[in-house]
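Observation: inputs received (chain + iron/sulfur cluster).
Thought: call the complex predictor directly.
Action: predict_structure
Action Input:
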Amino acid sequence: MSEKKITVATAWLDGCSGCHMSFLDMDERLVDLAQKLDIVYSPLVDTKVLPEQVDVGILEGSISNDADLHHAQEFRKHCKLLISLGDCAVTGNVPAMRNPFKLEAVLDRAFRETVDLQPQIPTVGLPTLFRQVRPIHGCVEVDVYVPGCPPHADAIFYVLNELIEGRTPDPNLVTRFGA
Ligand code: SF4
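Observation:
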């Protein structure tokens, strides 16, 4: 991977986008990285079609509905190496806090009990929520886990740099859960 640019795709599933904000927090290092990698699909760029073959896929957030699952499966299918980025992706974290409750109770709480104007549960044009939120590896195989909420920009830079240099990153050296 050291001679030619690596291709990178990113997506956020059930997450807050904070992990992607941390990615942007690499600041001026992004300019250096742009010499060594191409972001070919991401909420951060205009391209909205996942290429057939991508070197590195990065997923933020957990798998909470059928659209998340489809996205994760597509990334697994098209990305040679898949990174689970952030605590929501690695453990379920915040989205999984609903897991002890029945789905009906969660929907009632969000759309009826706490709403004054036209309380109703939306049913049209939305992904189907799963009863249980799962981390990425609960549904597809993951190659590299990068914990943190969000992982620090330094940790993301370390991981990408190791991959660019053809090495296997050990994120536990630079980040931890909740970091
Ligand atoms: S790990 Fe933290 S920052 Fe990242 S998506 Fe989850 S809540 Fe947001």
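Thought: report the result.
Final Answer: Helices lie at 18-24, 29-33, 66-78, 87-91, 103-113, 153-164. The chain has one domain: 6-98+133-173.
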